[in-house]
């Protein structure tokens, strides 16, 4: 970015940009590392080029989706102090509504349940609005509760949504004469057009297909998936931009004040309820959108995809990055996906690639008993066999250690200023003295004469 | 929601002749607030003249803070009316109260601990356009918001200097000392551009030298037309600075009048001053 | 030999150092006052005696023993009582329970002590079954004082006990402190009601920016022009 | 049917419980504790678990089961192989898994490269009639023939393994079984003829030797189906073992689905990225359905040995999805027939796990029972796995 | 927007709360009326409703028992402990390991017994585990479930919670989510993820109720006796000792408690031990009652426990018990109108939300009694 300093305004801009760039550098380095490591793992595992690219693509897709939700959660928790642990519920509403709106009116074949057959953009908008409305429905009664009750209410809401979607009653029903359904525990199968067709039908896309084919040996579906991941990254940037703007503004300042002391903010003339509702609804709508983008291109969805652990994943990502920092949210999602979510799987493969582990004892007792006679092999084999179980232990331990060692996350300590302009300098610098008088000669307490 | 219907705003004239009848800034009439078995405020009735500095005193537990809470909407009164500048504001929400220009400080300072002093002071200004989400987000309107912020920041620095806490500008408010927090609290209340300030023991715990200076500021502000209602236990302070004093006792007004008259009022002496003054 | 002897104490919060070589002494039966501007570190000094801050250097001795860095519940056993500046009652406990908590380290609630607290603050007897959190600011202050008196400590640390009290109670409070002191308890008080406090005390300290600035008999400080100008509001 | 002690009188004579063993234990415990008033129970494949009587603490003689049978031409050969290797008799869906792995591997050998699309086109060529027949015992020879580019017909353990035009097995057989002394005892076998083999396939096989043949299994080792999955995986491994000796290296990768959708998709994705051109899995229909999207869009063959949901027959798969287990369209009929004739019921009810498998099988069963057997279905109650008690569900299912 | 936040605001005012109360009241009366009419007219079977109620009470006792512990740690340590559900599971495994060991001594090898037969090597039915057949084994298991969990919870506190104790409720809550995850999967690692049956069938008494039976089995009775005894025990412990008051003082203001001389660490330890012990016994009893054990039943129970505790009001042990019973009975009774199990959990959560709407701090909220 340019860096010429003349007028005051550009001065600020360059400052802002410099700041942003520092974050960008951080993110860039972290992500470069992630990608390099995974490419290396792919090589070590003997993946072909398109396998490696695909691995990275999948990673990107996951990071982008997690990043979006984490950013939305950061808006709730990091900025406003709304302890929302019902994230999965809002994602579910976004996705289910979109699917129900988009599915064709006359189900054919495996497409068991009818929908409204609306065009994709409208369906997506509908899903986002529905998630926002759900936020509203939760917000009105719940926002007057204390923080922890609020939290439990949101997770209860998410469970109500999930169980409601699962229930036989919602399997198929009619609204104003139109037949609809969630498919109950069976879920919904996608049988509407690919929402990405707008892009795939472009002229440019076919040359992109050729390009990826030439570069990585991709087929058209893989090229599509790649494009989709790229689109998601763009959406993620959009989320980032939106939330960054939101937080660095007088609006964001009120949010921060609510987090600190809501009653005091009210006494200063802020209609805190209105702000809380707005921000809660906005965040929920964004979660809904993320939920849609997460799965809308998949074959189908069942309610089990929205069990509470999804919410906790998002929280882990947020905590890794540091609540209150948008950059941190993105970074946290990256690390969560790469290290905690996907990592163990690949580590396990790598180990398998290098050594033959052999048969493990099938119970813990069988693994531990030989330890007494100083034979650790069965225990190690057992451990290796249970690698994916241990992955969750790892997630839990990581969370605990983070809270011990870096409760503010990786970037959360650097609180972002809640103002549309940097507050570091006094504007219209008049006095020759700097804004902060030196510590020693200042009047401590400001009361001595 | 009050049980009694509000008097028409026109007929605020009170029966007692020695009270100021015109230019009433704030009128409280028959205010009642109960907590379970305790009646914290029991029919308190008083008026505050525009542009005046009025003291509200009374023994501990007399109901002063609760009266403040009822006026500013933190609590909803069980009965009675509150009228501000001729408008019935009984039972309004705290934020509406501030929008009317009636702002209070808390007996125990309520700073936004994790926001810097600057952010604390940027917060209260009224009608910030950037508080509308879309204005802060859309690029076109954002420019306006930024300009407004710059102007606001200027005012904030003036205020910091006024209260001589510039050196704390970038500190987290939570790390300030008790007295510094009181200053911040007052400065913040002023940033809302109020017409009337309700101060709940603003000087408790403030060093006397600083207190003196603050009082000068308060007087300056009063010259500019602000109205003050101050709860304070420091009788000297009340004597020297207030032109009227309202004495509360057990939830209702025991006496009111000029400081001189109050200090010689036997009932006041008995209930509050402890016979020494 | 002083009962409480703070020597060259450095302390603060986390990495932030607030106190720079503070010296304080309180002799047996003495009544000592600390005054100073807001943020000078008065509360911090008190908390440091009670082991509630980050220790950075120096010593705190009590009755000849080193209590530096000991935990509060040990220190209270030594015979020091402490009333913090803010949040000094248990809001959801009744007044009576608050007082009983003051004697937690004893096996039984000392009825005599309880009675004497009630005698000193009759309103507490009246309101003994009310939740302390719903008492007025001044009443809470009384509860807090009362709680600290339950153990009949040898040294009582009071952080701004008169803040928020009605004038009659302020006087009463100062009388109480005098009475407590007269009954053999040493007192160390932080006060912004500095003139009154200095009038009544044996000795006073002026703390500025985390260090000792003045130290002398109360009356002397009170009559010192410079002190008056800078710290007592003229 | 016996209603001694049933004061309520009415209620279904047969209760069809469709679920998996993990929740089955609780359901049966609650049943025997409070509702055991003579109702007969019928269960499908999902509850065919020999441990059940022990875990439930009841001999469960009132339970009759059905399950896709191992009724292939070489059933016995497989059973023998399995017993030799693992010392126990093969369980439900083991033979289907063996066949699925065998066919996928042979198709790969015939295709001559690890490419999903080519393998897809070879699937029917190695499975459906035409060419020399080979059974489970002759896999090595079959692989050699396929590598030589010959057309072969794999004759399986579970069935003849012929795919119809949607990739389902062209014929199906069902065992009717019961618990006896803590063992599963087959009492009858019912065979259905399907539409017959069909569908597109390649005209020739490139074949070839001296290369890596990659195939993956994605089956439950844990979760609701963990108990059934483990023997299935063993059986799959066996198929590869039988091919050792050919001039090919076999790369068999096994991943766990944890009977969980997310894990299935993650692990499935990783397998696809790793270049496995064919995946045998998943077991639960609820996991297989979403996986089809991943595999078919990546051009990877998916062959499920156990997913029996109807919806998988016409799922959008570009022809990449196959299965060796028959669709529940037929199992529903079998269960209805057993209920009506063997158990002599005219009123039935179902209690089904709320997923693809449970819902569809319950629907099929009820439909068949009412239409084909002229009976009446009183209640259809769904349940969520993993609950603390199922008394409420049982109460509703057994209501008049 | 403005109508919306009016709606939120109005939630505050008394009249709208009364309105809501009225609506809820009407709803409750309507349901009750329908129930009575239905019972009278025979639409609803009396014995069936009675079965729902008994079942609900038993379930409620477990939730309530576990809820006491959650409520205590919640109010004293000031955070919602998401690991509590997994403490319940842990306790069950500890206890059942011992029960299996005692009942199966000599029948099977120690390893599988202590691990509650991870690969279904033996089953409770084979060992004939039941309060009637093997009372010693069951009682020993119950005891160990309580004691071992109490100690185990202390250990977790030492390593997971103590280091973040000072930093407020939310960091602790997040830590507890981490502990929950880790603990749950450690249980899988050690005890395997399979579900197994733990008890043999026990005799039961059938009560004839007009149109059918309600049967109370020996394990149902054990559950009632044990749960009620423990509840009373906790009640007396907190009433008769100053521990109860110290706990409340601490939940108000930890720093002040510290300077008042309350040995805060010791109180915290006691809190954990009582809370953990109750969780462990609740887990053991739950398994005794249902007859199956698996690695996540506690976790699945957790949200219901939360619902009960919040419904009753945090900090009140009576609130927790009452909340547990309301949730348990409510869940089962819902099946009268919404047959099948689809809506039981939904009902529990809706009940909680409804109570919070009317009384934002729970039914017994504010009146701390523990
Ligand atoms: N939330 C509450 N619940 C119950 N009682 C309350 C509550 N708030 C205040 N009270 C009671 O109401 C009375 C008046 O309290 P208030 O705080 O208004 O007194 P005050 O005049 O401000 O006293 P002070 O000067 O000591 O601050 C007191 O007796 C107090 O105990
Ligand atoms: N918990 C804390 N963390 C960090 N800094 C603190 C903390 N408490 C106080 N400080 C800082 O320590 C300094 C001294 O504070 P202290 O409370 O001791 O002042 P004080 O002399 O008691 O003032 P006052 O008369 O206003 O109460 C102040 O600058 C304050 O900002
Ligand atoms: C393994 C089987 C019980 C799976 C079942 N047939 C299903 O489709 O879900
Ligand atoms: Mg007050
Ligand atoms: Mg202080």
TrEMBL record, chain A:
Keyword Transmembrane: yes
CDD domains cross-referenced by the UniProt entry: TM_PBP1_LivM_like (cd06581)
Pfam families named among the record's database cross-references: BPD_transp_2
Gene Ontology molecular-function annotations: branched-chain amino acid transmembrane transporter activity
Highest taxon of source: Archaea
TM regions (residue ranges): 27-47, 59-77, 83-102, 122-143, 225-243, 277-294, 314-341, 387-404
Keyword Endoplasmic reticulum in record: no
UniProtKB keywords: Cell membrane, Membrane, Transmembrane, Transmembrane helix
Subcellular location(s) of the protein: Cell membrane
Coiled coil regions in record: none
Chief localisation class: membrane
Cellular component terms (Gene Ontology): plasma membrane
Region of interest (Disordered), residue spans: 421-449
Membrane topology recorded in Swiss-Prot or TrEMBL: Multi-pass membrane protein
Entries under PANTHER family matching the protein: HIGH-AFFINITY BRANCHED-CHAIN AMINO ACID TRANSPORT PROTEIN BRAE, HIGH-AFFINITY BRANCHED-CHAIN AMINO ACID TRANSPORT SYSTEM PERMEASE
Name of this protein: Inner-membrane translocator
Originating organism: Haloterrigena turkmenica (strain ATCC 51198 / DSM 5511 / JCM 9101 / NCIMB 13204 / VKM B-1734 / 4k) (Halococcus turkmenicus)
Source lineage: Archaea, Methanobacteriati, Methanobacteriota, Stenosarchaea group, Halobacteria
TrEMBL record, chain B:
InterPro entries listed in its UniProt record: AAA+_ATPase (IPR003593), ABC_AA/LPS_Transport (IPR051120), ABC_transporter-like_ATP-bd (IPR003439), ABC_transporter-like_CS (IPR017871), BCA_ABC_TP_C (IPR032823), P-loop_NTPase (IPR027417)
Keyword Nucleotide-binding: yes
GO molecular function: ATP binding; ATP hydrolysis activity
Compositional bias (Polar residues): 1-15
Annotated Gene Ontology cellular component terms: plasma membrane
UniProt-listed GO biological process terms: amino acid transport
Keyword presence, Transport: yes
Role summary: Probable component of a branched-chain amino-acid transport system.
Family according to the record: Belongs to the ABC transporter superfamily.
Protein name: Probable branched-chain amino acid transport ATP-binding protein LivG
Source organism per UniProt: Haloterrigena turkmenica (strain ATCC 51198 / DSM 5511 / JCM 9101 / NCIMB 13204 / VKM B-1734 / 4k)
From TrEMBL, chain C:
First and last residue of the signal peptide: none
GO biological process: L-amino acid transport
Domain of life: Archaea
GO MF, any single term: ATP binding
PROSITE patterns registered for this protein in UniProt: ABC_TRANSPORTER_1, ABC_TRANSPORTER_2
Gene3D superfamilies for this protein: P-loop containing nucleotide triphosphate hydrolases
InterPro entries: AAA+_ATPase, ABC_transporter-like_ATP-bd, ABC_transporter-like_CS, BCAA_Transport_ATP-bd_LivF, P-loop_NTPase
UniProtKB keywords: Amino-acid transport, ATP-binding, Nucleotide-binding, Transport
Pfam families for this protein: ABC_tran
Domain ABC transporter: 4-234
Family assignment from sequence similarity: Belongs to the ABC transporter superfamily.
Classification via PANTHER family: HIGH-AFFINITY BRANCHED-CHAIN AMINO ACID TRANSPORT ATP-BINDING PROTEIN LIVF (PTHR43820)
Protein name according to UniProt: ABC transporter related protein
Native source species: Haloterrigena turkmenica (strain ATCC 51198 / DSM 5511 / JCM 9101 / NCIMB 13204 / VKM B-1734 / 4k) (Halococcus turkmenicus)
UniProtKB/TrEMBL annotation, chain E:
Membrane topology summary: Multi-pass membrane protein
Record-linked Pfam families: BPD_transp_2
Molecular function in Gene Ontology: L-isoleucine transmembrane transporter activity; L-leucine transmembrane transporter activity; L-phenylalanine transmembrane transporter activity; L-valine transmembrane transporter activity
InterPro entries referenced in this protein's UniProt entry, alphabetically: ABC_transp_permease, BCAA_transport_permease
Keyword Lipid metabolism: no
A cellular component term, taken from the record's GO annotations: plasma membrane
Statement: the UniProt record of this protein carries the keyword Nuclease: no
Main location: membrane
BP term (GO), one: L-alanine transport
Domain of life according to the entry: Archaea
Keyword field: Amino-acid transport, Cell inner membrane, Cell membrane, Membrane, Transmembrane, Transmembrane helix, Transport
Subcellular location: Cell membrane
Membrane-spanning segments: 19-44, 56-80, 92-116, 136-156, 168-192, 212-238, 270-291, 297-329, 336-358
UniProt record similarity statement: Belongs to the binding-protein-dependent transport system permease family. LivHM subfamily.
Name of the protein in question: Inner-membrane translocator
Lineage start: Archaea, Methanobacteriati, Methanobacteriota, Stenosarchaea group, Halobacteria
């Amino acid at each position: 970015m340019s860096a010429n300093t003349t007028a005051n305004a550009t001065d600020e801009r360059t400052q802002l940009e410099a700041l942003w760039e520092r974050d960008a550098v951080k993110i860039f380095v972290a992500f470069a590392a992630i990608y390099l490591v995974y490419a290396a793992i792919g090589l070590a595992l003997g993946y072909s080029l398109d396998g490696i690219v695909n691995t990275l693509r999948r990673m990107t897709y996951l990071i982008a989706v997690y990043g979006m939700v984490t950013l939305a959660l950061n808006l709730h928790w990091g900025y406003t102090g709304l302890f929302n642990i019902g994230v999965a519920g809002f994602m579910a509403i976004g996705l289910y509504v979109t699917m129900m709106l988009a599915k064709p009116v006359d189900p054919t074949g495996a497409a068991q349940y009818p929908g409204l057959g609306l065009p994709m953009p409208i369906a997506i908008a509908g899903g986002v609005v529905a998630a926002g409305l759900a936020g509203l429905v939760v917000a009105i009664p719940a926002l007057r509760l204390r923080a922890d009750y609020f939290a439990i209410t949101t997770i209860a809401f998410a469970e109500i949504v999930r169980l409601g979607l699962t229930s036989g009653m919602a399997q198929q029903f009619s609204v104003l004469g139109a037949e609809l359904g969630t498919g109950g525990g069976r879920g919904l199968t996608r049988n509407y057009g690919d929402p990405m067709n707008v892009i795939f039908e472009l002229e440019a896309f076919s040359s992109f297909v050729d390009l990826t084919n030439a570069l990585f040996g991709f087929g058209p579906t893989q090229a599509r998936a790649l494009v989709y991941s790229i689109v998601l990254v763009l959406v993620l940037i959009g989320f980032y931009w939106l939330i960054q703007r939101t937080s660095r503004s007088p609006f964001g300042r009120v949010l921060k004040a609510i987090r600190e002391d809501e009653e005091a903010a009210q006494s200063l003339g802020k209609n805190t309820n209105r702000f809380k509702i707005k921000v809660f609804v906005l965040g929920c709508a964004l979660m809904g959108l993320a939920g849609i983008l997460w799965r809308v291109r998949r074959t189908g969805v069942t309610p089990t995809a929205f069990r509470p652990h999804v919410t906790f994943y998002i929280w882990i990502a947020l905590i890794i990055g540091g609540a209150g920092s948008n950059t941190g949210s993105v970074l946290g999602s990256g690390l969560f996906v790469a290290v905690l979510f996907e990592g163990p799987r690949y580590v396990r493969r790598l180990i398998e690639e290098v050594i033959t582990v052999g048969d493990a004892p099938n119970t813990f007792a069988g693994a531990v008993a030989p330890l007494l006679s100083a034979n650790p092999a069965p225990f190690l084999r057992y451990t290796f066999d249970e690698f994916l179980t241990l992955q969750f232990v790892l997630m839990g331990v990581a969370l605990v250690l983070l809270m011990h060692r870096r409760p503010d996350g990786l970037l959360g300590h650097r609180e972002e200023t809640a103002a549309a302009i940097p507050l570091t300098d006094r504007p219209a610098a008049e006095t020759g003295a700097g804004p902060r008088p030196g510590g020693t000669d200042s009047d401590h307490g400001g009361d001595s004469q | 929601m009050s049980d009694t219907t509000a008097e028409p705003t026109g007929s605020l004239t009170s029966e007692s002749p020695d009270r100021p009848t015109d230019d009433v800034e704030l009128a409280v009439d028959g205010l009642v607030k109960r907590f379970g078995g305790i009646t914290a405020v029991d029919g308190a009735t008083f008026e505050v003249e525009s542009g005046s500095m009025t003291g509200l005193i009374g023994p501990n537990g007399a109901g002063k803070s609760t009266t403040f809470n009822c006026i500013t909407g933190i609590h909803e009164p069980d009965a009675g009316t509150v009228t501000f500048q001729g408008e019935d504001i009984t039972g309004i929400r705290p934020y509406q109260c501030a929008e009317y220009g009636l702002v209070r400080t808390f007996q125990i300072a309520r700073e936004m601990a994790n926001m810097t002093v600057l952010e604390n002071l940027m917060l209260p200004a009224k009608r910030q356009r950037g508080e509308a989400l879309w204005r802060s987000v859309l690029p076109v309107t954002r420019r306006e918001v930024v300009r407004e912020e710059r102007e606001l920041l200027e005012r904030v620095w003036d205020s910091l200097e006024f209260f001589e806490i510039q050196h704390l500008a970038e500190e987290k408010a939570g790390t300030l000392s008790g007295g510094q927090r009181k200053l911040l609290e007052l400065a913040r209340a002023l940033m809302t551009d109020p017409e009337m300030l309700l101060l709940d023991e603003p000087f408790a715990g403030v060093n006397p030298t600083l207190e003196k200076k603050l009082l000068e500021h308060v007087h300056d502000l009063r010259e500019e037309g602000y109205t003050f209602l101050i709860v304070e236990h420091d009788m000297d302070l009340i004597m020297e600075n207030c032109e009227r004093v309202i004495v509360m006792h057990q939830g209702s007004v025991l006496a009111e009048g000029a400081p001189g008259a109050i200090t010689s009022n036997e009932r006041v002496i008995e209930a509050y001053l402890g016979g020494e003054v | 030999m002083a009962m409480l002897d703070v020597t060259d104490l450095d302390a603060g919060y986390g990495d932030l150092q607030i106190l720079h070589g503070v010296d304080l002494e309180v002799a047996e039966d003495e009544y000592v006052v600390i005054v100073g501007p807001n943020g000078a570190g008065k509360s911090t000094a008190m908390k440091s005696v009670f082991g509630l801050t980050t220790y950075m250097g120096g010593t705190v001795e009590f009755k000849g023993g080193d209590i530096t860095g000991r935990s509060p519940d040990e220190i209270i056993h030594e015979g020091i009582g402490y009333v913090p500046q803010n949040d000094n009652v248990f809001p959801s406990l009744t007044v009576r329970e608050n007082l009983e908590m003051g004697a937690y380290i004893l096996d039984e609630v000392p009825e005599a002590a309880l009675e004497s607290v009630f005698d000193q603050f009759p309103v507490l007897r009246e309101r003994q079954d009310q939740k302390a959190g719903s008492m007025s600011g001044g009443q809470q202050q009384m509860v807090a004082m009362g709680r600290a008196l339950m153990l009949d400590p040898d040294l009582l640390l009071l952080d701004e006990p008169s803040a928020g009290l009605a004038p009659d109670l302020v006087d009463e409070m100062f009388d109480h402190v005098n009475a407590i002191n007269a009954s053999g308890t040493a007192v160390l008080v932080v006060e912004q009601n500095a003139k009154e406090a200095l009038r009544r005390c044996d000795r006073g300290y002026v703390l500025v920016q985390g260090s000792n600035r003045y130290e002398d008999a109360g009356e002397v400080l009170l009559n010192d022009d410079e002190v008056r100008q800078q710290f007592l509001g003229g | 049917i016996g209603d001694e002690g049933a004061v309520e009188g009415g209620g279904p004579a047969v209760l069809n419980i469709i679920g998996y063993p993990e929740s089955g234990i609780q359901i049966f415990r609650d049943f025997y504790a409070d509702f055991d008033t003579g109702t007969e129970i019928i269960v499908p494949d999902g509850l065919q678990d020999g441990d059940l009587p022990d875990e439930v603490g009841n001999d469960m003689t009132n339970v009759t089961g059905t399950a896709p049978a191992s009724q292939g031409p070489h059933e016995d050969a497989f059973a023998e192989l399995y017993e030799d290797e693992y010392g126990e008799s093969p369980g439900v869906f083991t033979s289907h898994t063996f066949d699925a792995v065998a066919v996928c591997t042979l198709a790969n050998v015939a295709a001559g490269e690890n490419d999903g699309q080519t393998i897809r086109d070879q699937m029917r060529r190695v499975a459906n009639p035409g060419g020399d027949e080979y059974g489970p015992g002759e896999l090595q020879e079959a692989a050699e023939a396929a590598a030589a580019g010959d057309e072969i017909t794999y004759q399986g353990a579970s069935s003849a393994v012929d795919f119809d035009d949607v990739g389902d097995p062209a014929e199906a057989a069902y065992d009717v079984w019961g618990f006896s002394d803590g063992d599963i005892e087959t009492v009858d076998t019912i065979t259905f003829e399907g539409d017959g083999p069909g569908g597109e396939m390649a005209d020739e096989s490139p074949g070839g030797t001296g290369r890596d043949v990659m195939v993956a299994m994605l089956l439950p080792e844990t979760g609701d189906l963990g108990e059934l999955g483990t023997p299935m995986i063993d059986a799959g491994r066996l198929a590869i073992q039988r091919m050792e000796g050919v001039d090919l290296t076999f790369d068999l990768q096994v991943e766990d689905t944890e009977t969980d959708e997310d894990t299935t998709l993650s692990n499935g994705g990783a397998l696809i990225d790793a270049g496995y051109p064919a995946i045998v899995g998943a077991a639960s229909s609820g996991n297989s359905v979403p996986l089809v999207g991943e595999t078919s869009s990546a051009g990877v063959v998916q062959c499920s040995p156990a997913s029996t949901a109807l919806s998988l027959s016409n799922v959008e798969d570009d022809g990449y999805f196959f299965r060796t287990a028959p669709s529940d369209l037929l199992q529903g009929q079998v269960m209805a027939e057993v209920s009506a004739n063997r158990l002599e019921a005219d009123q039935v009810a179902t209690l089904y796990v709320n997923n693809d498998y449970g819902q569809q099988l319950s629907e099929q069963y009820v439909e068949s029972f009412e239409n084909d057997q002229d009976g009446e279905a009183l209640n259809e109650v769904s349940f969520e796995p993993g609950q603390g008690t199922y008394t409420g569900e049982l109460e509703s299912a057994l209501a008049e | 927007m403005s109508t919306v936040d009016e709606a939120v605001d109005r939630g505050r005012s008394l009249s709208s709360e009364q309105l809501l109360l009225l609506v809820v009241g009407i709803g409750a009366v309507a349901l009750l009326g329908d129930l009575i009419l239905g019972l009278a007219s025979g639409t609803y079977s009396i014995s069936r409703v009675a079965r729902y109620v008994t079942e609900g009470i038993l379930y409620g006792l477990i939730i309530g028992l576990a809820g006491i512990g959650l409520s205590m740690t919640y109010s004293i340590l000031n955070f919602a402990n998401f690991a509590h559900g997994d403490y319940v599971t842990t306790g069950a495994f500890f206890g059942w390991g011992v029960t299996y060991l005692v009942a199966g001594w000599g029948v099977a090898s120690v390893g599988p017994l202590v691990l509650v037969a991870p690969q279904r090597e033996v089953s409770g039915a084979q060992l004939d585990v039941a309060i009637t057949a093997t009372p010693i084994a069951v009682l020993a298991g119950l005891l160990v479930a309580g004691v071992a969990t109490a100690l185990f919870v202390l250990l977790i506190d030492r390593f997971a919670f103590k280091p973040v104790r000072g930093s407020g409720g939310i960091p602790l809550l997040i830590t507890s989510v981490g502990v929950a995850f880790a603990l749950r999967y450690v249980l899988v690692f050690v005890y395997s993820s399979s579900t197994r049956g733990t008890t043999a069938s026990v005799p039961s008494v059938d009560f004839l109720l007009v149109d059918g039976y309600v049967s109370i089995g020996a394990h149902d009775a054990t559950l009632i006796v044990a749960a009620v005894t423990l509840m009373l025990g906790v009640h007396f412990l907190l009433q008769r000792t100053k521990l109860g008051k110290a706990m409340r003082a601490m939940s108000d203001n930890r720093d002040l408690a510290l300077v008042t001389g309350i040995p805060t660490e010791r109180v915290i330890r006691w809190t954990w031990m009582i809370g953990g012990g109750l969780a462990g016994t609740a887990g053991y009893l739950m398994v005794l009652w249902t007859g199956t054990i698996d690695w996540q039943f506690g976790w699945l129970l957790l949200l219901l426990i939360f619902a009960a505790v919040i419904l009753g009001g945090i900090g009140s042990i009576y609130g927790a018990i009452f909340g547990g019973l309301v949730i348990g009975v409510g869940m089962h009774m819902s099946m009268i109108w919404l047959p099948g199990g689809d809506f039981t959990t939904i009902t529990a959560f809706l009940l909680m939300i409804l109570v919070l709407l009317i009384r934002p701090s729970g039914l017994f909220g504010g009146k701390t009694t523990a």
